[in-house]
């Protein structure tokens, strides 16, 4: 952690870490992956010299490498960076790297947990840099530090840091059943816990109460924080997960159909059965993928 922090503060050390580090490539924010076992994918960690040669063979002079952004540090203490090669031909880069560019909406669910997290973080940082080239206050260009952990306005001292949008997601229970909803944009049959963006100035509890009231017209109690994660959709969300209850006497739903297509109470048996069906479906997909690769 201290090493990463030092790289954010020290441009020269960050350049040297880049030359000895691992680089993950993106093309217009789409991550490069490689197929590993049948049906599974992994992210591609390239060395500095490997990226240099990919860039040269794809017709670039290699200066793009300095645009790399620090995203983390491996267990072997090797710095990890990401780089968007959007100006190059994606097919040529993918062929050079024996990989394929896969949209993050898909990639996020194909990768193992830690890799999915790293790739999502990388995409969020790349996007933030792409849309913050100019200061919103002065309209002048902003310049990044070597790690890409901040941008500074070229005509004032304003410093910009990467931003996330806090989101609450809450599993509401009436003591026997849990409440799930679906938006019309969800895949057929998919239901999820209720979620929503926090408003400016709200506490976690206020955001949970408001979202549940807005979406299904219930008043929740006993809000308990459970865990959090970075969530890359629509982009750079910071998702805070909670549990909450309603009394069974006040569990009648009044669904806002502008926000949700449907919301329902589900029993434990229904959830267990749905999870079993999901598990069987995933196993069948894995099997089909093995078969098509033979
Ligand atoms: N059940 C669900 O709705 C689930 C949602 N999520 C995630 O939860 C988050 C919230 O999703 P929704 O339920 O659709 O939110 P939501 O219930 O707050 O409604 C979305 C609306 O909020 C407004 N909004 C306010 N701040 C916004 C911001 N920073 N970015 C985008 N829109 C903003 C927009 O008008 C947008 O149409 C997203 O990150 C989504 O990917 C994840 C799993 C399930
Ligand atoms: Mg919502």
Automatic annotation (TrEMBL):
Occurrences of domain Nudix hydrolase (ranges): 162-288
Keywords, alphabetical: Hydrolase, Magnesium, Metal-binding, NAD
Enzyme Commission (EC) number: 3.6.1.22
Gene3D superfamilies attached to this UniProt entry: 3.90.79.20, Nucleoside Triphosphate Pyrophosphohydrolase
Keyword set includes Magnesium: yes
Cofactor(s) annotated in UniProt: Mg(2+)
Catalytically driven reaction(s): NADPH + H2O = reduced beta-nicotinamide D-ribonucleotide + adenosine 2',5'-bisphosphate + 2 H(+); NAD(+) + H2O = beta-nicotinamide D-ribonucleotide + AMP + 2 H(+); NADH + H2O = reduced beta-nicotinamide D-ribonucleotide + AMP + 2 H(+)
The protein, known as: NAD(+) diphosphatase
Organism of this sequence: Ameca splendens
